[in-house]
Amino acid sequence: MTALITDEEATGKTKEVFEDIKANFGMVPNFFRAQAGDPEWLAMNW
């Protein structure tokens, strides 16, 4: 199981994607946090 990436842990591309997700949802759902271990995969799925 992959650990969920918190807002504080997010850096670089992950942080950019999280900010975009938050702008749309008001928060980052765990679905996206679980994918954040691979920033490229997260970006493709966003």
Q: Could you characterize what this model shows?
A:
The chain has 46 residues and is mainly alpha-helical. The chain has one domain (12-45). Helices cover 59% and strands 0% of the residues. It is built from 3 helices and no strands. It has helices at 12-25, 30-35, 39-45. It is globular. 22% of the residues are buried. The model has no long low-confidence stretch (mean pLDDT 96).
Task: Please provide a brief summary of the model.
Helix content is 59%, strand content 0%. It is built from three helices and no strands. It has helices spanning 12-25, 30-35, 39-45.
What's the helix and strand layout?
Elements: H1 12-25, H2 30-35, H3 39-45
- Count of DSSP-assigned helices: 3
How many strand units?
Answer: 0
Domain module tally: 1
Tell the overall outline: globular
Rg estimate, integer Å? 9 Å
Could you spell the SSE succession in H and E letters? HHH
Backbone structural class: mainly alpha
Distance between the termini: 21 Å
Q: Note poorly predicted spans.
A: none
Major β-sheet annotation: none
Percent helix among the residues?
Answer: 55-70%
Q: What is the mean predicted local confidence, pLDDT?
A: 96
Strand content: under 5%
Keywords:
single chain; about 45 residues; mainly alpha; 3 helices; globular
